[in-house]
Amino acid sequence: MSESAVQLELAGRSYAVACAPGEEARVAALGALIGEKLAGLPADVAASESRSLLFAALLLADELAEWREGLAPPPAPPAATLARLGNIALKIEQLADLFEAFGTAPG
Question: Whole-model pTM?
Answer without folding.
Answer: 0.59
